[in-house]
Design a protein that fits this description.
Blueprint lengths: L8 E4 L2 E4 L39 H12 L3 H14 L7 H11 L2 H8 L11 H14 L2 H4 L2 H4 L2 H7 L9 H18 L4 H7 L2 H11 L4 H14 L1 H25 L4 H8 L11 H15 L5 H18 L8 H23 L7 H19 L8 H23 L9 H14 L7 H20 L1 H15 L13 H12 L3 H9 L2 H15 L11 H20 L1 H6 L1 H17 L6 H17 L10 H15 L2 E4 L8 E4 L1 H4 L2 H18 L6 H8 L1 H11 L7 H17 L1 H9 L2 H7 L3 H8 L2
Helix pairs in contact: 1-2, 1-3, 4-5, 5-9, 8-9, 9-10, 9-12, 11-12, 11-13, 12-13, 13-14, 13-15, 14-16, 15-16, 16-18, 17-18, 17-19, 18-19, 18-20, 18-22, 19-20, 19-21, 20-22, 20-23, 21-24, 23-26, 25-26, 25-28, 26-29, 28-29, 28-30, 29-30, 29-32, 30-33, 32-35, 35-36, 35-38, 37-38
Length: about 750
């Protein structure tokens, strides 16, 4: 038994505690000289090794027994030192490590970590270092790393990362290493990242890295892991500190002249915030990328830079690129390099595609498409746009070639989804070029969209995988929609105007698929759902669907009459419009629904659902509300007569709305003679009377000819369809108003009995 008289006493918060006068116990094999390993215990001594023979070491068994039977701190400490001497470094296996823990427990290391006094001649951090070493040993067991007694030490361990002290002190360095070992082990458990973030570890790691003290490289590595596992939570808890790290990394990147700049290219995407990137960081990042990409590089040097540029494009659009000649040249270079990379990867059959790099290039091509189609404040000059469109056309041709080779077994792969996305972005702006190739691919695109629509949950997961593949291992942003069909809607809207592509889409069943998709998406906006949390892409998708249906109504009316899916669509439009027109901020969607419904009602006028049913009456009442509230009489200073002006709700969206409004007026006019009940319903709504009253209260010169024609069309059809309407119009000075506005057809109609 060790003589306890060899151990001086020191008082702890919970009782007497003894440590050896001389910490220089015989070091274990492998323990570095001069470090805490001289005390006989280091976390490295507890790392897993290959299982040894089942026979137990009798000496170790005796010392473990003494450890379990220790009655006070001095006996426990002495027994622990004996245990460390009995176990050679590298010989300890998981079972032995667990038996040591069972003998020691958490109470002893807990007290070591919280002691505030140390014996004379002993640095105050030595006891804490020993406690951390014990915890690091235990944490090499994943089950113990997730133990509540380890998790509640996270705040204490985090403070050790930024504690001041002699940077050359071996014991301090050992404690820092063991602290990182503990925190890294916790991060590897299922809920570990969440506990570390809540315990203040992210801020501590940021400060440790920025301080560039011992172990700062380990701080950066652990930060990278936490951001990859829980980006949103990290930024929520430690945004100022993470931004400080980003500023430091960006500045290093801008100044780097050696190979470290390529390593930083791989790290920086992880440190871009989910909100606004500081302008000084954007300047440094753009300058660093311009130097890298403007040089002759190998692929391993260029690819990380392209991926960083793609991440910036995803987060900031083109805002990170400076205006002027240097910015336009840099953007042109980015898109050029991306297109070359895409062609090299996809045109050569049998070549292994680096999917993460190519998908990043897709993001840069999408940025190029946006800038080439921007009319105002574009970074590119017209000659540059023409050149880039030509280059991107060749790259899109390579994408189409790749998609033509995709079999059913590959349709759920993220890279296919990414390829369909960039093709959809191109078709949204350009359908005249590559028309033959696009038409050949349309059957595949319809089947692909249908497959992912029918497996919507997998499609959403694919979207997340695409974002991971392309730009960073973090959660995708709202610009990566969760279904393939939404990506293709704008292009299909253009293609349904053309005879050839439209026939292919109809033959492949695209209209039926679009109807199902519209009804499914509409459910998300129906009462009972919180529309405030819906992404804008849902409403934009619904509007684009309406545009496609409008094209089909005009170009393929027979399809609307014979396909049952359009009857279901008409029923949904009739049921939805009355509540939609009452909702603030959704006027554009209401305009699409009203106009589409009115045009379809002309084609489906014999349907039982349109014969004065409550649903049909509610729909037309809502349509009248939309059409009638667009304009008001507005007084003008210095003039006796008011002028016709847009109502406040319509002013901000009239540029996007006016074509739908005029089309809706024309469609309503066409419905009046087909639905005998409609004219009396309009009369009860007082629309014709109020319309004549409005025209009579404003100066005729303020009403544009196209407005006069639209108003006259509605009034004439209502007057022709119903005698009571004619009488009501006469009572509202209809004949006089018709004369003032030179509405000859209305004047003639009202003159009849």
């Amino acid at each position: 038994m060790v003589l306890l008289s060899h151990f001086p006493e020191v008082t702890l918060d919970q009782g007497p505690f003894f440590i050896p006068k001389d910490l220089r116990v015989q070091p274990l094999k492998g323990a570095p000289p001069g470090e805490l390993g001289k005390a006989g215990i280091m976390a490295s001594d507890c790392e897993p090794a290959l299982n040894q023979a089942e026979s137990r070491n009798p000496t170790l068994e005796r010392y473990l027994g003494a450890l379990r039977e220790a009655k006070n701190d001095s006996e426990q400490f002495a027994a622990l030192l004996l245990v460390t001497k009995a176990v050679k470094a590298g010989d300890i296996d998981a079972k032995t490590r667990r038996r040591i823990f069972d003998a020691v427990g958490f109470t002893f290391p807990n007290r070591l970590l919280t002691t505030k006094e140390a014996p004379d001649g002993c640095p105050d951090h030595v006891l804490r270092a020993l406690g951390v070493a014990l915890l690091a040993c235990f944490c090499s067991d994943p089950e113990l790393a997730a133990h509540p007694q380890v998790l509640n030490k996270i705040p204490i361990l985090s403070t050790f990362l930024t504690a001041r002290g002699d940077p050359d002190d071996a014991a301090r360095r050992s404690m820092v290493d063991d602290t990182y070992q503990c925190l890294t082990a916790v991060a590897g458990t299922p809920r570990g990242p969440r506990h570390l973030i809540a315990g203040g570890t992210v801020s501590a790691l940021c400060q440790a890295y920025l301080g560039h003290g011992y172990g700062f490289d380990q701080a950066l590595a652990l930060l990278v892991g936490l951001l990859a596992a829980a980006e949103t939570q990290c930024w929520k808890e430690a945004e100022p500190d993470l931004l400080a790290v980003l500023r430091g990394l960006s500045e290093d990147f801008q100044k780097a002249e050696d190979a470290s700049k390529f390593e930083l290219c791989q790290l920086l995407p992880l440190f871009l915030p989910p909100t606004t990137v500081p302008s000084e960081c954007l300047r440094d990042l753009q300058a660093g990328l311009a130097r890298i990409l403007g040089s002759k590089l190998s692929s391993w040097q260029r690819n990380p830079a392209l991926k960083l540029a793609a991440r910036l494009a995803h987060a900031c659009g083109s805002d990170w690129i400076p205006a002027g000649s240097s910015g336009s040249k840099f953007l042109a270079l980015l898109v050029n390099l991306a297109c070359v990379e895409v062609r090299l990867a996809l045109e050569e059959t049998g070549t292994e595609v680096k999917e993460d790099v190519v998908t990043a290039c897709y993001a840069l091509m999408e940025l190029g498409i946006q800038e080439c189609t921007r009319c105002e404040q574009s970074l590119l000059k017209e000659p540059q746009k023409v050149q880039l469109v030509s280059i991107m056309k060749e790259a899109i041709g390579a994408v189409i070639h790749y998609l033509q080779q995709v079999g059913p077994e590959k349709q759920k792969e993220p890279f296919v989804f990414a390829s369909v996305r960039i093709l959809g972005a191109w078709l949204a702006e350009e359908t005249s070029s590559l028309r033959k190739e696009v038409c050949q691919l349309l059957p595949f695109l319809v089947r692909y969209a249908k497959t992912l629509y029918e497996e919507a949950e997998e499609a959403n997961d694919l979207s997340q995988q695409v974002a991971t593949l392309a730009i960073s291992p973090t959660t995708p942003g709202p610009t990566w929609p969760g279904d393939a069909l939404r990506l293709l809607l704008p292009g299909w809207c253009h293609l349904t105007v053309e005879d050839g592509p439209r026939e292919i889409l109809i033959k492949e069943g695209a209209p039926s698929l679009l109807c199902k998709y519209f009804l499914q998406q509409w459910e998300l906006t129906s009462p009972g759902h919180d529309t405030s949390v819906l992404p804008d892409s849902v409403e934009i998708g619904l509007q684009t669907c309406c545009h496609i249906f409008l094209n089909l109504v005009v170009t393929a009316p027979g399809l609307i009459k014979r396909d049952a899916c359009f009857t279901s669509l008409m029923n949904t439009l009739m049921a939805s419009l009355p509540s939609l027109v009452q909702q603030q901020g959704r006027l554009l969607l209401a305009a699409n629904v009203a106009t589409l419904g009115l045009l379809m009602a002309r084609l489906l006028s014999t349907s039982p659902a349109l014969q004065g049913t409550p649903a049909s009456r509610g729909f037309f009442a809502a349509a009248i509300l939309f059409l009638s509230q667009s304009h008001v009489a507005r007084a003008t200073p210095g003039s006796e007569q008011a002028v016709l002006a847009l109502s406040p709700d319509y002013e901000g969206v009239w540029a996007d709305l006016q074509e739908l409004w005029f089309l809706g007026m024309q469609a309503f006019t066409g419905c009046v003679p087909l639905l005998p009940w409609l004219a009396p319903a309009a009369l009860r709504s007082r629309w014709p009377q109020e319309l004549l009253q409005l025209l009579g209260s404003v100066s005729p010169n303020s009403v544009k000819p196209e407005m006069v024609a639209a108003y006259q069309g509605v009034l004439v059809e209502l007057a022709r369809a119903n005698r009571l309407c004619r009488e009501a119009m006469r009572l509202q000075a209809g004949e006089e108003t018709a004369s003032h506005y030179r509405m000859a057809a209305l004047e003639q109609c009202l003159a009849e009995p």
